[in-house]
């Protein structure tokens, strides 16, 4: 109905006009609501959005599984190698929050997240290839019997070349662990940006599935290589081949995501006056932005204020992760070692008694070392496979979440009627139960079964916390929500969450080192099993924090 008819109509017409106006207002409100929540994405779009997690997970697992043997093959000591691997949790705790804040404030024409994703992914792929080919880059193939000319005093050319190879290898690892933070932050934040609140749980489930698939692929290759020696006798052939494949997977998945998924620059679209004022302030203080952001993370007082400013669900999830990752660190890093130690202390690895004179009682038969390593590789494959299957099956019932969100009496953050918080509690208690079962695991099959069942808890722990945080961040962008906050917060909040994951890994690594040293002095052969039992205690404590989420309505 036109405006002229509305102004010149009769009383009967005015009644119908009011109805028409009311319906028009409802339509406008519905459009505003749909715009604020975001347009729902198809399944294929969500898969394309989250597929970079495959390459990211594959790169990280390759670095963790093959990085240490490769560094040792270059003559780098255990002490230096341990310090190099500390860069991962250090950068995760103190660099990713800074990158997240910078991403929220980005004005790049490519968007908020894509510059960080592209730069991080390119550096990860390039450093991974460079690490695998370090000896080829430096020409460090000097034979033992050669006598090259002297240079720089008493240092031989071969020695200089070898030191250069070691230095470059350490450099590639450090740059790669730094770049992974930008890559990971960008991928996680883009999921929050692109998906409406009702699809955050589903998108997080697909992220977990891609992570699980990457783990299965790397674990399968590792097991096949341990069993059939796929890559020949050359020491660097394995890491070179896998590095090339992982680099290709990163390039393919990131290219697909960037082509399919839009990432609008910060200053596009409607911007509130308050947001414009914030942008003007940012322009005035542009030179101080990086320093102020670093101080907000690295300063103890300002970091505490940042923690307290987190939204309630995100803050509670971070508390959960601070305790939970004290438990997850030894489980994820020492599972294969646990199977190896179980194999060593079983009867099959002893050659006889002390009277035989060949070996002392309890010393392993070195002819069975490869068998023990094969068992360790199989346990890693079992853990990854169970985790992947869980990520496929468990979130499969989340297809009705969008419909449930439209019902005021039903929560969107539940699975088949069970709140996600309760699901997390059950998963953590299951893991604690498995860790306590190591007291009775005297054979490799039982130990492998325990590690495999832990994969169920791992899948839930990789899905539920991120789903809850992502959904809360998405709700913060809705002007009608009580949590509404103007401006971008996704990168910052996800960075603080990553700090809550990384800091306990540093503490757990220190505790494990001291624990293993004590057990070694007392000649305890199953030190990792005792670390697992302590992890069970930590996970029970974490489950108490998880239980508080349900009282918050999650």
Automatic annotation (TrEMBL):
<keyword id="KW-1133">Transmembrane helix</keyword>
<feature type="compositionally biased region" description="Basic and acidic residues">
    <location>
        <begin position="265"/>
        <end position="274"/>
    </location>
</feature>
<feature type="transmembrane region" description="Helical">
    <location>
        <begin position="115"/>
        <end position="133"/>
    </location>
</feature>
<feature type="transmembrane region" description="Helical">
    <location>
        <begin position="380"/>
        <end position="402"/>
    </location>
</feature>
<feature type="transmembrane region" description="Helical">
    <location>
        <begin position="449"/>
        <end position="469"/>
    </location>
</feature>
<feature type="transmembrane region" description="Helical">
    <location>
        <begin position="41"/>
        <end position="63"/>
    </location>
</feature>
<keyword id="KW-0813">Transport</keyword>
<dbReference type="GO" id="GO:0008506">
    <property type="term" value="F:sucrose:proton symporter activity"/>
</dbReference>
<feature type="region of interest" description="Disordered">
    <location>
        <begin position="265"/>
        <end position="286"/>
    </location>
</feature>
<feature type="compositionally biased region" description="Acidic residues">
    <location>
        <begin position="275"/>
        <end position="286"/>
    </location>
</feature>
<feature type="transmembrane region" description="Helical">
    <location>
        <begin position="242"/>
        <end position="262"/>
    </location>
</feature>
<keyword id="KW-0812">Transmembrane</keyword>
<protein>
    <submittedName>
        <fullName>General alpha-glucoside permease</fullName>
    </submittedName>
</protein>
<feature type="transmembrane region" description="Helical">
    <location>
        <begin position="75"/>
        <end position="95"/>
    </location>
</feature>
<feature type="region of interest" description="Disordered">
    <location>
        <begin position="1"/>
        <end position="22"/>
    </location>
</feature>
<keyword id="KW-0472">Membrane</keyword>
<feature type="compositionally biased region" description="Low complexity">
    <location>
        <begin position="11"/>
        <end position="22"/>
    </location>
</feature>
<dbReference type="InterPro" id="IPR036259">
    <property type="entry name" value="MFS_trans_sf"/>
</dbReference>
<feature type="transmembrane region" description="Helical">
    <location>
        <begin position="163"/>
        <end position="183"/>
    </location>
</feature>
<dbReference type="GO" id="GO:0005886">
    <property type="term" value="C:plasma membrane"/>
</dbReference>
<feature type="transmembrane region" description="Helical">
    <location>
        <begin position="423"/>
        <end position="443"/>
    </location>
</feature>
